[in-house]
Every structure is written in C-alpha cells, then in structure tokens.
Amino acid sequence: MASIQRQGSSGSDSDPRYANVDERKRKRMISNRESARRSRMKKQKQMEDLVNEINHLESANAMLKQNIDSSVQRYVEMESANNILRVQAMELTDRLRSLNSVLQIWAEISGINVEIPEIPDPLMKPWQLPCPMQPLVASADMLQD
C-alpha cells in the first residue's frame, strides 16, 4: 500500500520532497552511466595496450628467433670448418712424423747428427704449435667458400 501511495504522490509535481528524490535518482543514474562509460573506456584502453604489447613482444620474439637461427647456422659452419682443420692437422702431424722417421733413418745411415724436435699432439694441446719457429700466415680468403 505504501508503494501505491508513493506512486500516486510522486506523480504530483507540487510536493518538493518527491521532486528532490526524483532529482537525486536522475543525478545518480547519470553519474552511474558516466562511471560505466569511463569504466568501459578504461577497459578498452587497457585492452589496446595489451594488444600493442603482445604485438611488440611477438616482433621481438621473432627477431630473437632469427638471431638464434643465424647464430646456430654460423656455429654449424664454424664447427664444420674446425672439424676439417682438425683432420688436416692430424694428417699433417702424421706426415711430419713420417718425414721425421725418414730423417732419423737418414741420420743413422749417414752418421750426421740431426736434432729432430718432438711433435706435440695438436688435439691434446691445441695451443702448442708443432713448429713455433715458423710464423703462421692467415688471410681472409681462407674462411670463405
């Protein structure tokens, strides 16, 4: 019954109490709408920011993957070149040992005293050069295909 009386009396514009209540309701409704609009805009802005960050991170990730692939390719090429150089060093070491044994036999036969230096194993101590008296000459063409 009380609600019926309110409805009946709220229709009359002559009562200032009800006009004040209607005005507060209207202001609250406008305020709520504005707050909801700001909230939607804020949410939309956050979503756009996250999408932009995703795009940036995906781009950076793709660039890092490309750098990794390039580094792996260079590593494989260098490892292949190193393997070739190791085989060549072993072959040259074997050849030098063979030549030293021939030189030792020649020294025994001829009676001439020849000092034959010991040949270090290049794979065991790669920093020790077999013949440190001879300079090694390198050029940029050595590593190119």
From TrEMBL:
Q: Which residues form the BZIP domain?
A: 22-69
For this UniProt record, give its keywords in alphabetical order, as a comma-separated list. DNA-binding, Nucleus, Transcription, Transcription regulation
CDD domains listed in its UniProt record: bZIP_plant_GBF1
Using the UniProt annotation, give all residue ranges assigned to the region (Disordered).
1-45
Could you tell me one molecular function GO term of this UniProt entry?
transcription cis-regulatory region binding
List the InterPro entries.
bZIP, bZIP_plant_GBF1, bZIP_sf
**Record PANTHER family:** BZIP TRANSCRIPTION FACTOR 44, BZIP TRANSCRIPTION FACTOR 53
Question: Which protein, by its recorded name, is this?
Answer: BZIP domain-containing protein
Q: Which organism is it from?
A: Citrus sinensis (Sweet orange)
